[in-house]
């Protein structure tokens, strides 16, 4: 049995939980369903993600194809995939290069992580909103409304996938046996994501600079802290601690406790992403600039050049 103190949140987690409790997002499944009542599910999109991912290469190929499909149709869900498909390609290269202690586990980790996204995308497209994790409902609903900035679309997707999905992905692939080796491989991905953060930050700033908006970097400084209430590295530590607690605590207490704190932090982070700390005038300028150009395409091109 693990010590009780291991179940007590760290100081950083307490701050994140309190912030998450204070910052809520008023997005209900029924309201989203009503908004999309006249829209039929996209059969071609569902066909792209109809079957579970079978391998790292399958994930890499189908995420890229899904991103292209959404982007060509002006679907704002493509913004997150622009980031995620490139993250996946980078991790795949690291796997091929033998960068991990347990290559098989790292590959399973990548596939299981992508599966969480695939299932969320299918649930939203099929309008099965009640079965959709709340952070993904917030992210997909914002993209469907088209009222957010490209930066917010990226942040909302990253938050749902890392702050929320990662806890459950680690449960899917299991952290035992050889927990220490798996923890080391989990941490190795931090360096890959740290590079990604800088790439995305540069691309977002470049995208908005291209449409004549100065001082946009205020939105993303520091960008890492806006990925989650705990920051990117902190969120990954949070997910690992959740996985440890889920594995070691009795099910009756471990599962509801982990579910509560994971959703609280992820939805709180989504609220922060939806309400960046910029004034109304700056926000209006950004929205007007995006209305005049294809900012999503500019973001895609800026990312592509850096990867």
Structure description:
- By secondary structure, this protein is mostly helical.
- The protein has helices spanning 11-22, 29-35, 43-48, 56-72, 78-96, 103-125, 134-145, 150-173, 179-210, 232-248, 251-274, 280-292, 295-306.
- The chain has one domain (9-306).
- It is built from 13 helices and no strands.
- Helix 8 runs antiparallel to helix 11.
- The termini are far apart.
- The model has no long low-confidence stretch (mean pLDDT 86).
Main beta sheet strand tally, sense and closure: none
Uncertain parts: none
Instruction: Bin the helical content.
Output: over 70%
- Name the structural class: mainly alpha
N-to-C order of helices and strands: HHHHHHHHHHHHH
**Gyration radius, rounded:** 19 Å
**Tally of separate helices:** 13
Number of domains as seen in the coordinates:
1
Shape: globular
Q: β content, as a range? A: under 5%
Please report the total strand number as a whole number: 0
Mean pLDDT: 86
Distance between the termini: 45 Å
Keywords:
mainly alpha; 307 residues; globular; 71% helix
What's a quick, concise take on this entry?
With 307 residues, the protein is mainly alpha-helical. 71% of the residues lie in helices and 0% in strands. α7 runs parallel beside α11 and α9 (179-210) packs antiparallel against α10.
């Amino acid at each position: 049995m693990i010590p009780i103190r291991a179940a007590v949140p760290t100081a950083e987690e307490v701050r994140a939980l309190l912030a998450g409790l204070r910052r809520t997002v008023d997005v209900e499944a029924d309201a989203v369903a009503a908004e999309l009542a006249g829209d039929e599910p996209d059969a071609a999109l569902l066909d792209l993600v109809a079957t579970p991912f079978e391998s790292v290469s399958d994930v890499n190929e189908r995420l890229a194809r899904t991103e292209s499909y959404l982007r060509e149709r002006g679907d704002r869900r493509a913004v997150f995939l622009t980031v995620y498909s490139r993250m996946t390609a980078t991790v795949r290269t690291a796997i091929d290069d033998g960068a991990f202690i347990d290559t098989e586990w790292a590959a399973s980790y990548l596939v299981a992580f992508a599966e969480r996204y695939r299932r969320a995308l299918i649930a939203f497209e099929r309008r099965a909103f009640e079965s959709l994790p709340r952070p993904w409902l917030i992210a997909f609903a914002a993209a469907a409304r088209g009222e957010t900035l490209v930066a917010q679309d990226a942040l909302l997707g990253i938050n749902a996938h890392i702050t929320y999905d990662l806890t459950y992905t680690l449960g899917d692939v299991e952290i035992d046996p050889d927990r220490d080796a798996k923890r080391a491989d989990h941490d190795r991905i931090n360096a890959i994501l740290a590079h990604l953060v800088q790439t995305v930050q540069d691309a977002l700033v470049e995208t908005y600079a291209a449409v004549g908006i100065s001082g946009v970097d205020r939105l993303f400084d520091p960008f890492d802290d806006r990925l989650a209430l705990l920051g990117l590295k902190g969120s990954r530590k949070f997910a690992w601690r959740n996985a440890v607690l889920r594995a070691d605590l009795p099910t009756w207490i471990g599962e509801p406790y982990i579910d509560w704190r994971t959703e609280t932090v992820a939805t709180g982070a989504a609220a922060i992403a939806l309400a960046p700390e910029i004034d109304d005038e700056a926000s209006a300028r950004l929205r007007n600039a995006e209305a005049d150009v294809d900012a999503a395409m500019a973001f895609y091109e800026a990312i592509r050049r850096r990867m």
